[in-house]
Amino acid sequence: MNATELLRELSEASGVSGYETEAGAIARRAFEPHADAISSDALGNIIALKRGDRAPDAPRRAIMLAAHVDEIGLMVKGYEDGFVRVATVGGVDLRTIVGQEVVVHGARPLPGIVGSRPPHVLSPEERQKAVPLDDLFIDVGLSQESLEEVVRVGDLITMRREMVELAEGYVSGKAFDDRAGVVSLALCLESLSTLRHAWDVYAVGTSQEEVGLRGATVSAYGVAPDVAIAVDVGFGAQQGVDEKESITMGGGPSIAKGPNIHPVMFDRLVETAKAHEVTYQVEYAAGATGTDAWAIQVAREGIPTALLSVPLRYMHTSVETLNVRDMERTGRLMALFIAGLDEAFASQVGI
């Protein structure tokens, strides 16, 4: 599997929260060759099952891997003299979208740009601030009459961005949060094809994470795994970010530690990384992680959960940047962890 090309395909696809069909179809195709069964649920989660090779008298155990397919975006909320007014879907960084190219997903896809008043007509105070949402508009070049024939209130708008390959394994593009995690799940399934594992594996591309962890909530309830690992992105070291609040780019996945994380899951992931010489780092998470792990941990009667994060710069922009090797290491670490699961481990986590 070419991780870079899969990330490119996922990144350039559309998949705003609640409307993940296009990106979800790509995730499904990536999972399918290495899965025994694949399905989707009412919320659009893509669920791939790879069955374990267990002894006939052994209990059936399962681990769920989760990475969200959805991305942040915009939505049409009205028109004004031929311009489109917008609302945000998820945590769009308004500082970064002025002047960017977009696609308005109307009756037909329309290329557009995000415009605002020129700086020459702003007050000195206004020039020092991010442009408020109500002062932004999308220009697709149509008259008001033509615009209303093609674009409806509620239509989605995505950033138009091709993935760029930088130097030394770095790439930049949109929606790496969390399509990088989806790639790592696909890599894990591929690696498991060469390893013996006793536990069933559910790889889930979750929906609607950016608007409330909804896909993880329902898929964890439906799958009802014994344990789980969520994969997301973490704040990669960059200018202006405290090193205590960030993780090293190229340093492998971070393994989170904190109340959202089962301590035995954390310990086994660290042991696995050390035993197989997988580069990793540790990240503290003193409270809510804001990831699928937060929802999975408290599903049903509780699920022992871990969180792996791929280091990422410029989160929630259209130029998110990561090192492909970190994705690959994340997939490998999960596969090796799964290959070591047994009944002794089940007892350790209290299941």
Keywords:
six-stranded antiparallel beta sheet; 351 residues; eight-stranded mixed beta sheet; Elongation Factor Tu (Ef-tu), domain 3; single chain; Aminopeptidase; alpha+beta; 17 strands
The gist of it:
The protein has 351 residues and is of the alpha+beta class. It is built from ten helices and 17 strands.
Q: Any overview of this molecule?
A:
The protein has 351 residues and is an alpha+beta fold. The protein has two domains: 3-71 and 174-348, Aminopeptidase (3-Layer(aba) Sandwich), CATH 3.40.630; 73-159, Beta Barrel (Elongation Factor Tu (Ef-tu), domain 3). Helix content is 28%, strand content 26%. It has helices at 3-12, 21-31, 124-127, 144-150, 176-192, 214-223, 263-275, 292-296, 324-339, 343-348, and strands spanning 37-40, 46-50, 62-68, 73-80, 83-89, 101-105, 109-115, 137-139, 156-159, 164-165, 170-173, 200-206, 227-235, 254-257, 281-284, 305-312, 320-323. It has an eight-stranded mixed beta sheet with strand order 1-2-12-3-13-16-14-15, with helices on both faces. Strands 5-4-9-6-7-8 form a six-stranded antiparallel beta sheet. A three-stranded antiparallel beta sheet has the order 10-11-17. The longest helix has 17 residues, at 176-192. It is globular. The model has no long low-confidence stretch (mean pLDDT 95).
